[in-house]
Amino acid sequence: MQYRRMPIEIEAPEWIGYEHIECNLSESSFADQRLSDLGISVDDLVLFYGHHRGTPGLRACIAAEAMLQADDILITAGAASALFIVATSLLQKGDHLVVQKPNYGTNIETPLAIGANISFLQLQFDDAFRLDVNELEQRITPQTKLVSLTYPHNPTGVSIDETTLHQLIAVIEKHNVFLLLDETYREMTFTTKLPVAASLSDKVISVSSMSKAYGLAGIRIGWIACKNKALMEIFLAAKEQIFITNSVLDEAVAYQYLQKKDVLFTPVKEKILENFRIMKTFMQQQDVLEWVEPDGGCVCFPRVRKEIDMDMQVFHDLLLTTHKTYLGRGHWFDEDPRFVRIGYGWETPEKLSKGLRNIVAVVEALQK
After folding, report:
1. Comparing C-alpha atoms, which of 83, 78, 106 is closest to residue 250?
2. In this predicted model, what pLDDT tens digit does every residue of 153-173 receive, in sequence order?
3. Distances from the Cα of 206 to the Cαs of 7, 27, 203, in angstroms?
4. Which among 18, 177, 237, 360 counts the fewest CB atoms within 10 Å?
């Protein structure tokens, strides 16, 4: 496999240096949580190898909410390793897959490193980033092994309704291919929460994690959900050959959090909604950016209006150096540089508001 570093990782805020950033609007998750604030204790934990599939209690907890069985869940080191396991288990050089675009880089880079052939299902801003199921079906060929989608979507925040989800699964089953659905933002929807797609068909592989919605990226806990027993054995074999088992410390934190999820996640949802209202009000009151209003998650993907003539690299540099404000870049997703990903779930309402004002200030300064 030919690996290459992705721009979204090369230019991640930790590489820029958090000391240089005051208003961090580049993050795609809720704010990082402190263990001491969660009422979680691991003092009596035995540091053994752990269960290869993941702690039974943790898998049962995830499965119950997903309307699945514990054996349908495989715990992974974050969603990133889950995506890697799925791609390397299902694809070989020359295989074909259909990938939604824009998308998180791993969903594209790993298949490319394998040598797979990709057809992109390009979501269009002018069509409200809407999924066209008929267009997706047209991309499927006899060589197609996998269709890869994300909902709620990163970086746009748009979603689909349950009717569309069932239509999508019908297409997948008709053509006998697998659907990989990244559901990392499922808990953060502003509309009716979709069912876990893997509960609807054994041709669906759902992936999620504790990182984005819960602000627990540091524990590196994600999972694969799938009812296909043979496929889950292959995924388990892949996991065992890559990292054998997860950290039992990480799994203990995740399990205790989910046991108290109703209490711990309520303030998270309240803050996300508060920040979303700030984001929405800002978009209504300015004339620099245009957007497709998100349906969930904590990111959106507006673009600088076409009539504004501006060097986007100069814009980003000036925004960071003069206002210590950092945004996601359009090229992180191989899109027009006039797009920016704004994460509105990580900062405080005050810093979010300040960062948004800074965007307008820099654009106006560059127009003089």
Report:
1. 78
2. 999 999 999 999 999 999 999
3. 26, 23, 10
4. 18
The DSSP string of 307-353 is T----HHHHHHHHHHHH-EEEEEGGGGTS-TTBEEEE-SSS-HHHHH
Q: Give the pLDDT of residue 34.
A: 92
- Helix/strand/coil for 182: strand
- Tens digits of residue pLDDT in 251-307: 999 999 999 999 999 999 999 999 999 999 999 999 999 999 999 999 999 999 999
For the chain, where do the domains classified as CATH 3.40.640.10 start and end?
40-261
Tell me the average pLDDT across 48-73: 97
> Strand 204-209 and strand 222-225: pairing?
antiparallel
| Residues carrying CATH 3.90.1150.10, the chain | 7-32+265-366
Cβ 327 vs Cβ 340: under 8 Å: yes
Determine contact, residues 92/116, Cβ cutoff 8 Å: yes
CA distance 73 to 151: 19
pLDDT at 368: 72
Q: What Å distances lie between residue 364 and 120, 287, 326, 349, CA to CA?
A: 35, 11, 17, 23
Give per-residue pLDDT as tens, 168-220.
999 999 999 999 999 999 999 998 999 999 999 999 999 999 999 999 999 99
Fold adopted by 7-32+265-366 = Aspartate Aminotransferase, domain 1 (3.90.1150)
Contact 152, 119 (CB under 8 A): no
The 3-class SS string of 93-150 reads: CCCEEEEEECCCCHHHHHHHHHCCEEEEEECCHHHCCCCCHHHHHHHCCCCEEEEEEE
Q: What is the dihedral of CA 64, 150, 355, 304, to 10 degrees?
A: -160
CATH of domain 40-261: 3.40.640.10
The total of other beta-carbon atoms located within 10 Å of residue 155's CB is 27
Report the C-alpha gap between 207 and 150 in whole angstroms: 9
Task: Give the helix/strand (H/E) hosting 85.
Answer: helix 78-90
- Give me the DSSP letters along 31-79: PPPPHHHHT---TT-------SS--HHHHHHHHHHHTS-GGGEEEESHH
Residue type, 337: P
